[in-house]
Specification:
By secondary structure, this protein is an alpha/beta fold. It is 43% helix and 14% strand. The chain is built from 13 helices and twelve strands. Strands 1, 2, 3, 4, 5 and 6 form a six-stranded mixed β-sheet that branches. Strands 9-8-7-10-11-12 form a six-stranded parallel β-sheet, with helices on both faces. The two termini are 33 Å apart. Bound molecules: phenylalanine (PHE). Phenylalanine (PHE) binds at residues 40-42, 117-119, 138-139, 150, 264, 290, 293-294, 297.
């Protein structure tokens, strides 16, 4: 029988799709949940075959942000902005300003239910541009009154998660004894690679942008193609590029023992978590691993904490992950299922 009930429990509260009046480009702002407080989630500026693919991505990413905030213990819900660029389209400075102002207007229209931040394709300077239309933008540069680039804090959170993951999987949190394959050397992936090099880990790295080879070589990492990096024979795979990397097609080719990285939505579908489990690969849920940026930004900008206090919160990702991994082990479920059920509990509790 075909399931016909409408799953309104998990449906989005508010989704806006608008053709930008200045730019003519499609802008999607998805507010998934405000049950715990204002929805937050970054502004992604990326290429999509069709704007509908950008809409699909925004719906998935914003729902994941609700769980990310809940697991991080933040009084916030999840949202996301996606600006869908047609394949091959580049933006000059004026076009970029136009589309960011368009996005800012849509966010302003949401009247404080949602605030944005940097994401794939945007950074602190773009938040200044958005802030010309709405105050709801995190991570403007420090000199512009914000908490600055969040990517280093996200990377610190990833390192904390890697400690917890290695302790659980290999019985020791010592990263210097381990090998890692870092896939994606963008803002966050680049920091993660450098931090792992600093602690003396064995590294292989890849990026679709061959220009990033210099960074890999400089820190002593072996350079590989993205395909070889994905299937490298290492202790831990660190996905730090776009999502959808772990699929029924790729999982059987993996040779790592564990996976933890900052990329959002690493699984193509929830069932892929079960497949990883069957293959004996311990997967740290991305919604926990990638929360450092948002934890730091909200601690500093909303709760006016010092950067030392915020940094301590970011390192708390290790405890959250340890707790979820142990719960999963004790209950015979996957970390993904344990994380999702913990997030749902918190959101339900907040709703009541
Ligand atoms: N890209 C960030 C994430 O996915 C979004 C963000 C960072 C939002 C910092 C606000 C502040 O978590």
């Amino acid at each position: 029988m075909v399931a016909t009930h409408l799953d309104t429990e998990s449906m989005h509260e508010h989704v806006v799709v608008r053709r930008g009046v200045r730019s003519g480009l499609p802008i999607v702002v998805a507010v998934h949940s405000t049950a715990l407080g204002q929805a937050i989630g970054g502004c992604r500026l990326a290429h999509y075959p069709h704007w509908r693919d950008g809409l699909t991505d925004a719906l998935r990413l914003s729902a994941a942000m609700s769980d990310k905030c809940a697991l991080a213990g933040l009084p916030n819900g999840g949202g996301k902005t996606v600006v869908a660029l047609p394949p091959g389209r580049t933006l000059d400075a004026a076009a970029r300003r136009a589309v960011l102002h368009d996005a800012g207007d849509v966010i302003a229209g949401l009247e404080g239910t949602y605030a944005t931040g940097p994401d794939v394709g945007t950074g602190p300077d773009d938040m200044v541009t958005i802030a010309e239309r709405t105050p709801q933008a995190f991570c403007r540069p420090v000199q512009a009154g914000g908490s600055g680039d969040s990517s280093v804090h996200t990377a610190v959170g990833v390192l904390a998660a890697l400690h917890a993951l290695c302790a659980e999987r290999f019985g020791s949190a010592d990263l210097s004894a381990r090998s890692f394959a870092v896939l994606g050397l963008g803002r966050v992936g680049g920091h993660v690679l450098r931090m792992l090099a600093d602690v003396g880990a064995t590294l292989v790295a890849a990026d679709i942008d061959k220009g990033r080879r210099t960074l890999a070589v400089t820190v002593g990492a072996a350079w590989a193609s993205p395909q070889d990096c994905l299937t490298a024979d290492v202790d831990v795979l660190v996905p730090a590029a776009l999502g959808g990397l772990l699929t029924p097609h790729t999982v059987p080719t993996l040779r790592c023992a564990a996976i933890a990285g900052p990329a959002n939505n690493q699984l193509d579908a929830p069932a892929t978590a079960d497949l990883l489990h069957q293959h004996g690969i311990l997967w740290a849920p991305d919604i926990i691993v990638s929360a450092g940026g948002i934890i730091h930004a909200t601690a500093v900008e909303l709760h006016h904490e010092t950067s030392a206090q915020a940094a301590a919160r970011v390192r708390g990702i290790a405890d959250t992950l340890t707790d979820i991994l142990r719960t999963a082990r004790a209950t015979g479920s996957t970390p993904a299922a344990a994380a999702r059920s913990r997030a749902r509990q918190r959101i339900e509790h907040g709703r009541r």
